[in-house]
C-alpha cells in the first residue's frame, strides 16, 4: 500500500491547494485573453511569472507578511499579468484581483 506521507503534512496540503488554485486562475486568465495553450510564448511567460512570483514570495517573507491561499494566488496572477505585459499582451484591470497589498509586493519585486 502506497501512502502519501507528505500529503499528511498540513503545509504540503496547503501548498497543493495553492498551486491547484494558481493553475485554475492561470487557465482562466489565458482563456479570457484568448491565448492558446499552444502559444509558443507561454513557456517563457510562465517561467518569467514563476521567477517573479518566487521573488515576491521572498519579499513577503522578509516583510513578515501573513499570507493565506488567496494571497498566494493573487501574487501569482499579478506576476503573470506583469510578464504578459512585457510581451505586449494587455491584461485588463477587471481580470486582476483587487489586492493592494499584493500589488505593492509585485511593484517592489520588479524594481
* SS field, number of helical segments: 4
Alpha-carbon Rg, integer: 15 Å
Query: Could you give the count of β-strands?
Result: 0
Shape: globular
Task: Name the helix and strand elements from N-terminus to C-terminus, one letter apiece.
Answer: HHHH
Text of the CATH class: Mainly Alpha
* Straight-line N-to-C gap: 50 Å
Largest sheet: none
- Uncertain spans, ≥5 residues at pLDDT below 50? none
Q: Report the portion of residues in β strands.
A: under 5%
Give the averaged pLDDT, no decimals. 91
Oligomer state equals: single chain
What is the share of helical residues?
Answer: 55-70%
Name given to the CATH architecture: Orthogonal Bundle
The name CATH uses for the topology is: Cyclin A, domain 1
Structural class: mainly alpha
Count of the separate structural domains = 1
Structure, described:
The structure is a single chain. This protein is mostly helical and 111 residues long. It has one domain: Cyclin A, domain 1 (Orthogonal Bundle), CATH 1.10.472. It contains 4 helices and no strands. It starts with 9 loop residues before the first helix and ends with a helix. 20% of the residues are buried.
